[in-house]
Amino acid sequence: MKRKLTYRDQLIELAEIYGIKEVQDYLRNKKNLTTGQLELILQKNKVVIPKDFKTNFFKENFIKPFSRVSKGVGNFKESFFKGVSKFPRKVSFVREDVSTIFSNSLVKFWKTLGNIGLGFLNVLPKLGSTVYNFIGKTSTDLFNSIYNQKLRLNKVNQSVVGFFLIAGIIVIVISGFKTFYDFKKLDQKNVVEKEIKKPETISKKEVKKIDPKDKNKSLKSKELAKKPNLTKQQKKEKITEVILPDLNLKTATVLNLFKDVNYDLNKVRFEKKVKPIYFTQFPKDLDEIQSMKLKKETFIKIVLPLIVAENEKILDDRFKLKKITSRKNTSDEEKQWLRQKFLEYKVKKGSVEELKKRMDIIPASIALAQAAKESGWGTSRFALEGNAIFGQWTWDGKGIAPLMRDKSKNHKILRFPILRASVKSYKKNLNTHKSYEKFREKRLEMREKKVALKGLDLTSTLDNYAETGSEYTKKLEELINQNKLSDFEPVRLANSTPKAFEL
Question: Which DSSP helix (H) or strand (E) runs through 277?
Fold first, then answer.
């Protein structure tokens, strides 16, 4: 049976997911941190604590009920004393609603006129010739009457009225089209401003992380002044790292954010670098995108940085393992680190060779293909409600029950607090579970031959991942080929160090 994590253990796990060094240092030095201290450290590092984390029993059953009662009394007082001031606000709201309804009605009216005008354009040539003939005939009759001195008042009146009527209709139609266009443009502008507002505040907060000391040193140093492009690039890469909390962002806002930071997959394929933008969840309206191509690109843009970040973390561990095993003597800190990794990768008897075999990356092409297959390109119920993008099963943990589950089965789909936790669990599953021993053997063989890890060479070993077996692996190969996912295998983070890629 899986041990149920306490609230404190959940906070520690969350700190490990985000790689908070302060917590890791305390744990490494065997210093106990209280729950309050862990919460303060997470808040200081701008890590959002999920709402579904449980508190202790005393707080949940004794303190919270009293606080809820007191809060209810306070809310009642506030609503009672402020009830009088609500009327003017309601009046202003009604006024705004009326003006909005009036403007929308006017826009719809002119839109209807525009549609009528489009149909009118089909008969415009005939109408033009008719009007031309009418004006020509009327003008000829008028001037003939003037010349022959047989001018009639009725014909003059008819001519003048007809001219002004035609001119008035033309003016109304043109002004209608112009007004409708202006309203539509203004509405689009307001929508774009509302959608872009949140990401702009986030980017401003990230810019504040620049170390002013480094900036002053670069300005004072003559050697760095000779190579300004390199220093600027390094600083820019540090600034670009963004962790987006649970903001319930809409798809339109996400697309605007990608546009603002110039996040383009074609550029990623060419430069082999991806911006470290980490989403904690998918947009709830991702399925509303009509274009399948745009939906796939949005999914890849969200998931790819998470996959690459976990791969680079694994590569950093491999680099450290290589350094430790290359020396004869190891420190107490290094021995403690090795013990932790043996436990993490479920290596028995402390075998370093087995640890090297398990401590390795999952090619980005395979991870993306499996994520797309299991989550329906981020639109499945498991992905939206539980951040589960790899369809991992559980029998004793928190999960989401499948709707079409057989009565004889009692499994659930494992849910996660954030998307990165799902990616981390997926890679741990492939690197430790006995069902994927063939995958690890093949990967080790490629490492020993010093061959680049390619997803298409490893997909056949994942037949145990689904009940369909070989059909499942063929589907993965189709997804990789059709969407050119192999292009993302050499991609690394824009702010990463090259040492991890020397392995």
Answer: strand 277-279
Token pair, residue 415, equals 């849910």
Contact 294, 351 (CB under 8 A): no
Question: Measured between alpha carbons, how far is 374 from 379 in angstroms, rounded to an integer?
Answer: 10
d(CA 333, CA 28): 8
CATH number of 240-502: 1.10.530.10
450 Ramachandran zone, left/alpha/beta (phi>0; psi -120 to 50): left
Instruction: Taking residues 421-450, report their average pLDDT.
Output: 93
- Rounded CA separation 47/41 (Å): 9
| Beta pairing partners, 414 | 399
Where do you find CATH 1.10.530.10 in the chain? 240-502
**Strand runs (DSSP E) across 280-434, as ranges?**
393-394, 399-400, 412-414
**pLDDT higher than threshold 50 for residue 35:** yes
Question: pLDDT (tens digit, 9 = 90+) per residue, 254-263?
Answer: 898 898 889 9
Residue 73 is predicted with a pLDDT of 65
Alpha carbons 209 and 239: distance in angstroms, whole number: 7
**Please, what is the Cα angle at 309 between 307 and 315, to 5 degrees?**
105
Distance CA 376, CA 43 (A): 33
Please give the model's pTM, rounded to 2 decimal places.
0.55
Q: Encoding tokens for residue 360? A: 């390795």
Amino acid at 480: I
